[in-house]
Design goal:
By secondary structure, this protein is α+β, with helices and mostly antiparallel strands. It contains six helices and 21 strands.
């Protein structure tokens, strides 16, 4: 318990409770030698769109041959981001010894006002036994987290609510919308540049243009997000093309976006000016005189076709859907699919996803456990030691290449063993002639 008391003294005091947790394993020896998990959540209330920082720190007395499996903090109406350098190695002196560890940072941004709750989450830690250096796997649990999104005074009537350090609307007009002829076109592009909040919080920028003789064709909005010195920024771009189809006059509306300035504490407005639209020429022809008899016949025929189609769908679609679901489920549950996922993880050198992918594949191998393969274990230890340890065991690249070859060889061996075990024995193993009892 001495190590635990020293760790608590090293953790900074914050407004949200910080906890230290020790996990022990029956094979690790005396209590107090297991990993420790601390959580730092200093602020529990934010303006919607602004991030709250949550830090999880894992410390072990030796080293971690594999990175921890971190939990997802996803919950409804909360934007969860991993900032730049969200995962960093650390070390601390505890009880006269140097403990190694990893710190994981999350940014939790309430998207709407209200209270939010994150239940306890699990962190899976693999570390080397202090005596034998054998890998030990334990599960630590975080505390529950409560936080809130609150609107600042004076901004209660903003709809939608946007809080940022800066927000600007820029408009570009291409063509001559004030002097068009049928067949001509022009475009309106509005770009909202924001700093201090994710551009995903920005609403639609373009307003409907209701002008006789004009057809509007909007492009898909383009949202770009970036991080500048720890501050979220980005832009939302919307473009609409205006095509003249007949004579008419009107005006494109002014676009105004009200927002709360985090620096001044006041509600401000960003504006894109409207503009005149004029098309010289005769009015566009609307439509031919309606033939109500033909319309009635078409409606009756469509109704009959809909009845027949509905009857066929009730008979055919459910079996087809079930067959498709069964095939998809069988594919996801197959050993081949799990092995492809593992090879993809190894090729990407994704430390966080490696252990879950290896476990998923091992559970689907019928003849043996590839995790017990000596070569596979050696490659895993080499990767962990190179990345998080201090023993100088080869390079991490060499470990990943060795692991890629090891899992292929282990799979070939286990599949061959499975085929040999599935073979039927001979009908007459002793070679004795068959006698009919009759």
């Amino acid at each position: 318990m001495t190590a635990l008391r020293l760790l608590v003294l090293l953790v900074p005091i914050v407004t949200h409770p910080v906890f230290a947790q020790q996990a022990t394993d029956d094979s690790s020896g005396a209590a107090g030698d297991g990993p420790m998990l601390t959580m730092d959540f200093p602020e529990t209330e934010a303006i919607p769109g602004q991030p709250l920082r949550l830090r999880l720190t894992v410390l072990v007395p030796t080293f971690m041959p594999q990175p921890p499996v971190w939990p997802s903090m996803e919950t409804s109406n909360v934007l969860v981001r991993l900032p730049e350098r969200s995962t960093t190695p650390i070390s601390k002196r505890i009880g006269g010894a140097t403990w190694s560890g990893i710190m994981r940072s999350y940014q939790l941004s309430p998207m709407v006002p209200g209270e939010f709750f994150l239940p306890p989450r699990e962190v899976v830690v693999t570390y080397a036994d202090p005596e034998t250096s054998a890998p030990i796997r334990v599960t630590l649990t975080t505390d529950a987290v409560r936080f809130a999104g609150a609107l600042p005074q004076g901004a209660e009537n903003l709809d939608p609510f946007i809080a940022a350090q800066s927000l600007e609307l820029k408009q570009t007009i291409e063509g001559e919308p004030g002097s068009m002829k049928p067949g001509d076109s022009a475009s309106r592009t509005i770009v909202a540049e924001v700093r201090g909040v994710s551009p995903m919080f920005l609403p639609a920028l373009q307003l409907p243009i209701d002008v006789d003789g004009i057809a509007a064709y909007p492009d898909e909005p383009r949202v770009e997000e970036a991080e500048d010195r720890g501050v979220i920024a980005g832009s939302r771009t919307e473009r609409v093309t205006l095509v003249a189809e007949g004579g008419g006059r009107g005006e494109a509306p002014v676009v105004t976006l009200d927002w709360y300035n985090l620096q001044s504490g006041k509600v401000e407005s960003a504006t894109a000016d409207g503009f005149d639209i004029a098309i010289d020429g005769p009015p566009a022809i609307t439509s031919e005189p309606r033939d109500w008899r033909l319309i009635a016949l078409v409606c009756v025929g469509a109704l009959l076709a809909l009845v027949v189609l509905s009857w066929l769908l009730r008979r055919i679609v459910p079996p087809l859907l079930q067959w498709s679901r069964d095939r998809h489920a069988a594919k996801l549950a197959s050993e081949e699919y799990a092995f492809r996922q593992l090879r993809r993880v190894v090729s990407k050198r994704d430390n966080a996803a490696l252990r879950p992918a290896l476990d998923a594949w091992s559970e689907r191998v019928r003849r043996g456990d590839p995790r017990e393969d000596v070569v596979v274990q050696g490659a895993l230890v080499a990767i962990g030691a190179a990345r998080y340890g201090h023993d100088g065991m080869g390079g991490e690249d060499a470990g990943w290449r060795a692991l890629a070859d090891a899992i292929v060889a282990a799979r070939t061996t286990l599949l061959d063993k499975g085929r040999a075990g599935d073979a039927l024995p001979p009908l007459n193993p002793g070679g004795q002639p068959f006698h009919d009892p009759a």
